[in-house]
Amino acid sequence: MSLEGLKVLITGGTRGIGLATAQAFLAQGAQVTIASRKLEHVHHALESLNHPHAFGFACHVGEATARQELVEQSLQAMGGLDVLVNNAATNPHFGPLLKADAEHWQKIFEVNLMGAFGLTQLCYPALKASAHASVINIASVAGLKVYPGMGIYSVFKAGLIMMTRVLAAELGPQNIRVNAVAPGFIKTDFAKAIWDEPAHLKPVLAATPLRRLGSPEEIATCICWLANPQNSFTTGSVITSDGGLTL
Ligand SMILES: NC(=O)c1ccc[n+]([C@@H]2O[C@H](COP(=O)([O-])OP(=O)(O)OC[C@H]3O[C@@H](n4cnc5c(N)ncnc54)[C@H](OP(=O)(O)O)[C@@H]3O)[C@@H](O)[C@H]2O)c1
User: For the residues of 123-152, what is the DSSP string, one character each?
Assistant: First the structure.
């Protein structure tokens, strides 16, 4: 199966799962645009990718103007778009849901849900023109199951999963596939508070049948599989990659 020639936009593409996904697409012949908030992170990631078909721009996905600019820049750099990977997310609140305030709700809504929705809406004309169009939303096992302390993040990851299903139904007739990946605990900066602290890591490993954390490369493999044009009948799916955590 080949990803040759696909034009791919990945938000949060400067480290962790997003960067590993950029590497995987490039290695299989795709063109890739990565984006994240900090320009220095974008430059650093582009240096590490070191590929003539890699492009990068700064974009805070929670800001409407920044999303608009990113889509324009990406289309110009790659000459079109086949695959949008909505990967950027934030989680500024950890603790009981009732301890969260309106600011936390607003922030997570803007980045994790409106960011993905707004970009999908802006990319829609380009995706409609592609023969291999797909949107891949990076959800979480926290959107499928309750984990203590993950409150608002879980609510919006569940929302992202339902948005994936609704858009898959609405865009299917235009041959645009929409899928999600729900990772378990993956060894990136995002989950550092878990893997860096033995007292937190121990119960996670005990609850994970494979008895380890996942790697960003393993999630990248799922994302590439969903994007593959030969995987053309898969839409509205949520692929769980969690070492068995949700069993
Ligand atoms: N790691 C896990 O255990 C795990 C589990 C389940 C789901 N996930 C999901 O996987 C996705 C990627 O997470 P990760 O673990 O790879 O995280 P990560 O290593 O912390 O990387 C996050 C990336 O997103 C960018 N970013 C953060 N806020 C942004 C914003 N507002 N706008 C644009 N870019 C932004 C960061 O760069 P800048 O700092 O430059 O913005 C960085 O490139 C997220 O959707 C997360 O919810 C992760």
Answer: HHHHHHT-TT-EEEEE--GGGTS--TT-HH
Residue 247 lies in a domain: no
Nearest atom (ligand 1) to Cα of 12: 24
Kindly give the number of the ligand 1 atom that is closest to the alpha carbon of 185.
3
Beta-strand pair 7-11/177-183: unpaired
State the residue range of the domain holding 179: 7-241
Radius of gyration of the chain (CA): 17
- Whole-number Å distance, alpha carbon 207 to ligand 1 midpoint, is 23
* Cα angle 46, 20, 141; round to 5: 135
Q: Is 153 a catalytic residue?
A: yes
Both tokens of residue 112?
């994790």
pLDDT digits (tens, 9 = 90+) for 41-68: 999 999 999 999 999 999 999 999 999 9
Report the domain count for the chain: 1
Give the integer Cα–Cα distance in Å for 106 and 109: 5
Nearest CA residue ID for atom 32, ligand 1? 60
